[in-house]
Design goal:
Blueprint lengths: L1 H4 L6 E4 L16 E6 L5 E6 L3
Antiparallel strand pairs: 1-2, 2-3
Amino acid sequence: MFEALYPNHRPEQFGTNIHARSVFGGDQYLEGYSMYQLQNGYKHILSYGLT
């Protein structure tokens, strides 16, 4: 889906320390996110793990 919106664009990837993630007993509920920089200055952020 995002390839169609942002052709030839690689998002910046960010993630938490795997041992701090809640699934492993930590306090981090957000596993990571991808950020797409738009030409108009806005950013599209896609998060992972927060449900």
